[in-house]
Design a protein that fits this description.
rod-shaped, single chain, 10 strands, five-stranded antiparallel sheet, Ribosomal Protein S5, domain 2, 2 domains
C-alpha cells in the first residue's frame, strides 16, 4: 500500500549556461522504475549529441527506489547533486535528467556540483508540486429532511461533494482522506442519529496542491 508523498504534476525543461557549457534540465513525473528507465532512454536519444546525460530519480510504488548516474562526469558531481535536490524537497515519483553540452572550460568538482544542483533547482521551480493523499470514495445516503444538516457538516469539514443523486433518498458522493474517514463517519452518524448510510466504495490517491 502506498503512503502519502509529494511529487510534481507536470513536466518541464529549463536551460542554464555556465562558462559556455549548456545545462538542460528535464523534469518528469514517473510512477515506476521501468517508466523512469524508458524516459531516460528517450531523453538520451533526444540529446544524443550531448557530452553527458546525467540523471537521478526517486520512485515510490509501495517501496522507495533511488538511482542516479554521473554519465561520465567526475564521480559525485552530477547525479548525486540532482538526487540531493529531489530528496531535500522530499519529492518522489520524479525523474530529472540534466544534459550537458561542454563549452570548453572545465568547471572543477565544486563548479560541476553547483551547476547540476542549480539546473535541477531551476527546473523544479517551473513545475507545480502536489501532495498525493490516500483517500476513500464514499456514498453517503440520507433522507431529504437531513440534506441541509449533512451539507453543512461537509462544508465545515472542507469536504467537496463530487456528485449527487436524488431518488427516493439523496446520495452524496464524496472523497475523504483515509486518516479522517472514521472521524467523519462518526460525526455524520451522530448528527443524524444514525439515520444516514456511510458506504465506502474504493480507495483512491488524490493530488492536492
Amino acid at each position: 500500500m502506498l503512503r502519502e508523498y509529494i511529487t510534481v504534476n507536470e513536466e518541464s525543461v529549463c536551460e542554464i549556461i555556465i562558462k559556455k557549457s549548456r545545462f538542460i534540465a528535464t523534469i518528469k513525473k514517473v510512477k515506476t522504475v521501468s517508466q523512469a528507465t524508458d524516459e531516460i532512454k528517450n531523453i538520451r536519444e533526444t540529446y544524443k549529441d550531448a557530452n553527458h546525460n546525467t540523471y537521478a530519480y526517486v520512485v515510490n510504488d509501495g517501496s522507495v527506489y533511488q538511482k542516479y548516474s554521473d554519465d561520465g562526469e567526475p564521480k559525485g558531481t552530477a547525479g548525486l547533486p540532482i538526487l540531493a535536490v529531489l530528496t531535500h524537497h522530499k519529492l518522489e515519483n520524479v525523474l530529472v535528467v540534466v544534459t550537458r553540452y561542454f563549452g570548453g572550460t572545465k568547471l572543477g568538482v565544486g563548479g560541476l556540483t553547483r551547476a547540476y544542483s542549480k539546473a535541477t533547482t531551476n527546473v523544479l521551480e517551473k513545475v507545480t508540486v502536489v501532495k498525493i493523499s490516500r483517500c476513500v470514495k464514499v456514498a453517503l445516503s440520507c433522507s431529504y429532511q437531513l440534506v441541509g444538516k449533512i451539507q453543512n457538516s461537509l462544508r465545515v469539514n472542507n469536504i467537496i461533494i463530487n456528485n449527487s443523486q436524488f431518488l427516493e433518498n439523496v446520495t452524496f458522493f464524496i472523497t475523504v482522506k483515509a486518516d479522517k474517514v472514521n472521524k467523519i463517519e462518526k460525526e455524520l452518524i451522530d448528527l443524524t442519529s444514525n439515520h444516514c448510510e456511510f458506504k465506502i466504495i474504493e480507495e483512491v490517491y488524490v493530488e492536492m496542491e
